[in-house]
Amino acid sequence: MADSERLSAPGCWAACTNFSRTRKGILLFAEIILCLVILICFSASTPGYSSLSVIEMILAAIFFVVYMCDLHTKIPFINWPWSDFLRTLIAAILYLITSIVVLVERGNHSKIVAGVLGLIATCLFGYDAYVTFPVRQPRHTAAPTGKPAEGPSSLH
């Protein structure tokens, strides 16, 4: 049993490091870290707003593990691309609303920092939603017809 654990550990570590170097891995890792920093700022000023950061941090960590371990291919009954797109879109909208409310209220410095970081999180989650949506859509390519391409070069 100990030998199989030693053999699987490097594979798990390799999968983690390989995924964390992809664009999606970097985005998810940045979302987790940013949510943690926003959580700390909200906890220092207004604990009422911290639940959004906790929920989004947990969801980003879940999606990080799912994509890192290739569970999205092993659990087919959940549509992972659409789930991830909706998660990021809803997070962007909620962070935008929360940040505007926090910045309009004007409070101590940690509250203002949390509001500004919330706007940065809005951009990050919005970018992730933008990147996630087109990549997951099936791309249709024209079938080859065997005819030479028509264009300026074929008219000579």
Provide a descriptive summary of the structure in words:
The protein has one domain. 76% of the residues lie in helices and 0% in strands. It has helices spanning 2-20, 23-45, 50-68, 71-74, 80-105, 109-136. Helix 5 (80-105) packs antiparallel against helix 6. The longest helix has 28 residues, at 109-136.
What order do the helices and strands follow? HHHHHH
- Shape summary: elongated
* Structural class determined from secondary elements: mainly alpha
Biggest beta-sheet profile: none
Proportion of strand residues: under 5%
Average pLDDT works out at 79
What is the number of helical segments per DSSP (H or I, 4+ residues)? 6
| N- and C-termini, Cα separation | 71 Å
What share of the residues lie within helices?
over 70%
What is the total domain count? 1
User: How many E strands?
Assistant: 0
Radius of gyration: 21 Å
Low-confidence stretches: 1-8
Question: Can you describe this structure in just a few lines?
Answer:
The protein is mostly helical and 156 residues long.
Provide the fold topology.
Layout lengths: L1 H19 L2 H23 L4 H19 L2 H4 L5 H26 L3 H28 L20
Helix pairs in contact: 2-3, 2-6, 3-5, 5-6
Structural descriptors:
6 helices; Proteolipid protein 2; 156 residues; mainly alpha; disordered N terminus; MARVEL-CKLF_proteins; single chain
